[in-house]
Structures are given as structure tokens and as C-alpha cells.
């Protein structure tokens, strides 16, 4: 979906393998008219450490992965929309429960309170998806107005089968290929367009 006017997307990523696609996704979003600001969990920032300077140049904004110190000015333009993708089991549950120790989870929690259109794409393995808190978190976020792209029959993902500690890197590459970045950008664009019509 192409946006008519330049619109700011706060793209938040946590530490799951699709995060390695983020430069390509930013370019795709920019081509569709988004001004992208990139926020990362501390673990995702550690994974992308060699690319952080390049990602700041690509977006034209500082990449953020920590809260500002008191008194520091706001460095990003306000969000017209938030896309939290990939969102890990950890970050999804923290967000649903309002546990905002990471900057991006705090910003995503505030986005709900501010009524900013927000889309989330969980990336979890089957074992995490069977944990009772997972469905509760998805439902809590959906009932708060977040579009959670997850589950069969939607534009979202099914859980993947990787096992903690066994070949996660390799499975992650496969998972990254299947991750519905295009659908996520389409949905967030459609939400902003609907809000303007
Ligand atoms: C190679 C690798 C792949 C991982 N893949 C996932 C994943 O797909 N989903 C998930 O919820 N956690 C995954 N994890 C675990 C998270 O990185 C871990 O829970 C981390 O603490 C999440 O922190 P964050 O939510 O603050 O980014 C993976 C870890 C590693 C090392």
C-alpha cells in the first residue's frame, strides 16, 4: 500500500531471527511513503550491533534501544503508526502485561494508550505458543485494539518448530524467509489510510 503523504512509522523489533531482514523492510516501507524510526530491544540491538550505524543512516533517525535520560529532548517525530515485528514471546508478554522495562515495549504500551494504530507480528516457536500466557497476551493486545497478525487463516505466522539451543540460527534463516513482512506493512498502511478517510 502506497501512502499519499509522508507518514511516520515507529518500527520496533525484538530478538528473533526476522530482525536480520530489517534493512530490507525499512527500504520497502520507505518506498511506500513511510518515514521509519527504528527501535530495538537491548537483545535485538546486540544482534544488530555491527549494523546500527548504517541503520541510523538508512532511516535518517537515531536507532533507539534504551530510554532517554531525564531532560533529554524527544529525538523522533511522533508515530502515525507502530509496527512491532518481530515480537518475541518475551516482549509480547511484557507488552500485554504492561511490564515496560525495555524502551520499545514501553513505547508500544503508550501507543495503545494514545490510540496510535498498532500492528504486531509474533515470532514464536510451537513450545512458546502452547504456554498459557501466549494466548492470553494475544487476546489482551487484540482487545486493546492492536492488530496481532498471528495464526492460521490470517496474514500471520503459525508457530515454528525450532527448539531452544538446537540449531536456532539455521532455523531462524528459514523462518525469516517465511515471515510476513509484506502483509504487516500492508495492514499498518491500511489502518492509517482508514483513520484518514
Ligand atoms: C538464535 C535465536 C533465535 C531465537 N528465536 C526466537 C524466536 O523466534 N522467538 C522468541 O520468542 N524468542 C526467540 N529467541 C529467544 C529471545 O531472543 C530471548 O527470549 C530474548 O530474551 C528476547 O528478548 P527481547 O524480547 O527483549 O528481544 C531466540 C534466541 C536465539 C539466540
How would you describe this structure to a colleague?
- The protein has a five-stranded parallel sheet, sandwiched between helices.
- Helices cover 45% and strands 14% of the residues.
- α4 (89-97) crosses α7 (132-143).
- 42% of the residues are buried.
- The protein has a single domain (7-196), classed as Rossmann fold (3-Layer(aba) Sandwich), CATH 3.40.50.
- It is globular and about 40 Å long.
- With 197 residues, it is of the alpha/beta class.
- The protein starts with 6 loop residues before the first strand and ends with a helix.
- It is built from nine helices and five strands; from the N terminus they run βαβααβααβααβαα.
- The structure holds flavin mononucleotide.
- Residues 14-17, 41, 43-44, 88-91, 102, 123-124, 128, 168-169, 172 line the site of flavin mononucleotide (FMN).
Amino acid at each position: 500500500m502506497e501512502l499519499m503523504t509522508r507518514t511516520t512509522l515507529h518500527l520496533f523489533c525484538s530478538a528473533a531471527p526476522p530482525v536480520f531482514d530489517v534493512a530490507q523492510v525499512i527500504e520497502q516501507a520507505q518506498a511506500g511513503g513511510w518515514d521509519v524510526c527504528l527501535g530495538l530491544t537491548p537483545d535485538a540491538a546486540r544482534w544488530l550491533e555491527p549494523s546500527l550505524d548504517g541503520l541510523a543512516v538508512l532511516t535518517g533517525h537515531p536507532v533507539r534501544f534504551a530510554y532517554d535520560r531525564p531532560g533529554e529532548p524527544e529525538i523522533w517525530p511522533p508515530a502515525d503508526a507502530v509496527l512491532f515485528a518481530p515480537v518475541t514471546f518475551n516482549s509480547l508478554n511484557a507488552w500485554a502485561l504492561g511490564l515496560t522495562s525495555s524502551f520499545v515495549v514501553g513505547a508500544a504500551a503508550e501507543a495503545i494508550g494514545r490510540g496510535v494504530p498498532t500492528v504486531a507480528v509474533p515470532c514464536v516457536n510451537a513450545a512458546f505458543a502452547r504456554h498459557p500466557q501466549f494466548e492470553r497476551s494475544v487476546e489482551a493486545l487484540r482487545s486493546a485494539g492492536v492488530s496481532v497478525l498471528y495464526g492460521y487463516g490470517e496474514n500471520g505466522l503459525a508457530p515454528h518448530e525450532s527448539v531452544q539451543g538446537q540449531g536456532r540460527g539455521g532455523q531462524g534463516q528459514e523462518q525469516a524467509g517465511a515471515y510476513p513482512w509484506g502483509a504487516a506493512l500492508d495492514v499498518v498502511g491500511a489502518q492509517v489510510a482508514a483513520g484518514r478517510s
